[in-house]
Amino acid sequence: GAPEDPQGGQCPCTPPALLSPLDAEKTPGYWNKGARRRLELALALQPAAEQAKNIILFMGDGMGLSTMSAARIYKGQLSGGSGEESVLAMENFPHMALAKVGMSVPGGTVLLPLSETQLDPSCFQTYTIDRQVPDSAGTGTAYLCGVKANAKTLGLSGAAVYGKCRTTFGNEVDSILHRARLAGKSVGIVTTTRVQHASPGAAYAHSASRSWYADANMPKEALRDGCKDIAYQLVHNTDINVILGGGRMYMTPRWTPDPEYPEDPDQNGTRKDGRDLISEWLSTKQGARYVWDKKGLDAVEDDSVSHLMGLFEPKDMRYELNRNTSTDPSIVEMTEKAIRILRRNPNGFFLFVEDDCVACAGGRIDHGHHSGRAKQALMEAVMLDRAVAQAGELTSPSDTLTVVTADHSHVFTFGGNTPRGNSIFGLAPKKAKDKRAYTSILYGNGPGYSIREGGRPAASLPAAEDKDYRQQAAVPLETETHSGEDVVVLAQGPMAHLFHGVQEQHYIAHAMAYAACLEPYATEPRCRAARRASHGTQCSPQTLLTLLALCMAALMVGG
C-alpha cells in the first residue's frame, strides 16, 4: 500500500524517487512550473500607495551580496538541505533596489540636507566626499539622515571635518528616527554591537568622530570646545523609547564595577565626568526600565513600560555562535521585545535593527568579516534574517514598511567550482596550482594571509568548519577591509515600490520619510489628504454635543 503521511492519511501513489527534489529538478516541468508561479506573483503585484504607519529598517552591517548568498546556503544547510535552494525571509520581499555605497571622488554636486531637498531624480548625483570605499559612520549618516558625509563622522554634513569638534556646530543633520519621534511615533534601536557604535549612533548623535564613545575617548580640545560624547547624546539628544544592545562601560563613572563581570577591572565604567547616564535616563522617563541580562529582559512586561534600555555587554555583544543563551538575548529576542513595546503607540513607530557581519568595526556580521572568520559572520546574517521573519509575524505589510539593506560589503567571496551540497565552509574539489587545498570561501585581504615554509598552508577539514577558522586572504592586513560595490535594498509594505533601480544610498532615508509622511515630506499632497481622511472619521465637538442633546431629549420623552 501507499505510505502513510504524518497526518494519518496516505501519500499519493508516486514512486519515492520522483519525490526527490534533485530528481524533480532534472525535468523541464519543474523549472517551468516554478517560473510560472513566480511570473503570476509578479503580475499580481500592485504598488501599495498607503501611508506607512510603522517603519522597520534592518541593517546587516557588512552584509554584501556575497554574504547574503553564502548565508542563504548556510541557512539551508543548517536545516539539513543542500543549501542552494534555500530562501532567506528577506528575499521574499517584492521590491528591490541597489544602493551605491561608494563615495565619489571630488567634483560632483553638493546635496542639500534631508530637510531642504525634494524627492526628485535630479538629486541622485555624486558630490564632494572623501572616500571611495566607505565606513559605517558615513554610510549610517547617509541611510538614516539622508545625506552623504565624510568618513568617520556621525550625523553631520560633508562640511564637518573628522576629528575637528568645532566643525560640528551648524552642520548637524537629523535622522529619520529623530523625525519620527518629533511626529509622535515611538522609536527604538536594536543592535548586536555597542549602542554607541557608528551605525546606531547615526540615528541620534552628531559627532566629528565615531570613536568618541564616552568622554574618556575624546581629546581634551574637543571637550574644551563643547562637544559631547556619543553616550551622552544617546541619553540627551532624542527621546528614544527602546535601546537594546551592548555598551555598558560608556554609561557609568570610571571604576564602576560591571554587574556581569564585577571582578574584571577591564569591564569597569570609563566615564571621567562622573556621570551615571543610565540613572539620568531613568530619572527623566516615566515608566522606564533598565536591564542588563536576558532574565531582566524576559521579565519586562510589554504593556508595563514606555521606555526600555537593555545593555547586555560592556562593549559589543557576543557573536551568536559564542552567545551564552541563558544570560544574553539574541537579536531575534531583542527585536521581538522592541516591537511589542513600540507597537502600542497608536501613531506608529520607527525601529532600527542592526547586526554586524564583521569582527572589529561594526555589527557582528561586519565584525566577523573584519576578523576573517566567515562562519561567525554568516551566522550573524542568518540571525538577522530570523529577526526579519519574526518582525513579519508581529507586524502587517498593510501598515508597516520593512526595509532590509547593508551599509557596505566586504572583500569576501566564495567559488572554486564546488559541487551541489558542498558545505559552504568546505574545500574546493580541486587543488590550486601550488598543489594545496583551499576553501571555497576566501578574502581579498585580512588576517587570514599566511606563508609557511615558502608557501601558503593547505586548508583541511574539519579545521575549516570551525567557528573561529580564519579563511585565507590574498593580502596581509591586521583586519579585513570593506569593499565598495553596491548593496541590495529589499522592501515590503506601504510605498515599498519606491525602492527600485540603482540609487545613491542616502535615498533610503528619503524614501522612508516620504512613505511615512515625515519631514520634509509631511506636507506632500498625499500626506495632507491622509490627514483629512483621518480627521473626517472623527466626530467634531459640535457633532458630539448634538448627539448628546438628542440622547437627553429621547430620555426625557421616554420618562
From TrEMBL:
<dbReference type="GO" id="GO:0098552">
    <property type="term" value="C:side of membrane"/>
</dbReference>
<comment type="similarity">
    <text>Belongs to the alkaline phosphatase family.</text>
</comment>
<keyword id="KW-1003">Cell membrane</keyword>
<feature type="binding site">
    <location>
        <position position="482"/>
    </location>
    <ligand>
        <name>Zn(2+)</name>
    </ligand>
</feature>
<feature type="binding site">
    <location>
        <position position="407"/>
    </location>
    <ligand>
        <name>Zn(2+)</name>
    </ligand>
</feature>
<feature type="binding site">
    <location>
        <position position="197"/>
    </location>
    <ligand>
        <name>Mg(2+)</name>
    </ligand>
</feature>
<feature type="binding site">
    <location>
        <position position="354"/>
    </location>
    <ligand>
        <name>Mg(2+)</name>
    </ligand>
</feature>
<feature type="binding site">
    <location>
        <position position="61"/>
    </location>
    <ligand>
        <name>Mg(2+)</name>
    </ligand>
</feature>
<dbReference type="InterPro" id="IPR001952">
    <property type="entry name" value="Alkaline_phosphatase"/>
</dbReference>
<feature type="binding site">
    <location>
        <position position="199"/>
    </location>
    <ligand>
        <name>Mg(2+)</name>
    </ligand>
</feature>
<feature type="binding site">
    <location>
        <position position="370"/>
    </location>
    <ligand>
        <name>Zn(2+)</name>
    </ligand>
</feature>
<dbReference type="InterPro" id="IPR017850">
    <property type="entry name" value="Alkaline_phosphatase_core_sf"/>
</dbReference>
<dbReference type="GO" id="GO:0004035">
    <property type="term" value="F:alkaline phosphatase activity"/>
</dbReference>
<keyword id="KW-0325">Glycoprotein</keyword>
<dbReference type="Pfam" id="PF00245">
    <property type="entry name" value="Alk_phosphatase"/>
</dbReference>
<dbReference type="GO" id="GO:0005886">
    <property type="term" value="C:plasma membrane"/>
</dbReference>
<feature type="binding site">
    <location>
        <position position="61"/>
    </location>
    <ligand>
        <name>Zn(2+)</name>
    </ligand>
</feature>
<protein>
    <recommendedName>
        <fullName>Alkaline phosphatase</fullName>
        <ecNumber>3.1.3.1</ecNumber>
    </recommendedName>
</protein>
<comment type="subunit">
    <text>Homodimer.</text>
</comment>
<keyword id="KW-0479">Metal-binding</keyword>
<keyword id="KW-0460">Magnesium</keyword>
<keyword id="KW-0862">Zinc</keyword>
<keyword id="KW-0336">GPI-anchor</keyword>
<feature type="binding site">
    <location>
        <position position="408"/>
    </location>
    <ligand>
        <name>Zn(2+)</name>
    </ligand>
</feature>
<keyword id="KW-0472">Membrane</keyword>
<feature type="binding site">
    <location>
        <position position="366"/>
    </location>
    <ligand>
        <name>Zn(2+)</name>
    </ligand>
</feature>
<keyword id="KW-0449">Lipoprotein</keyword>
<feature type="active site" description="Phosphoserine intermediate">
    <location>
        <position position="136"/>
    </location>
</feature>
<dbReference type="GO" id="GO:0046872">
    <property type="term" value="F:metal ion binding"/>
</dbReference>
<keyword id="KW-0378">Hydrolase</keyword>
<dbReference type="InterPro" id="IPR018299">
    <property type="entry name" value="Alkaline_phosphatase_AS"/>
</dbReference>
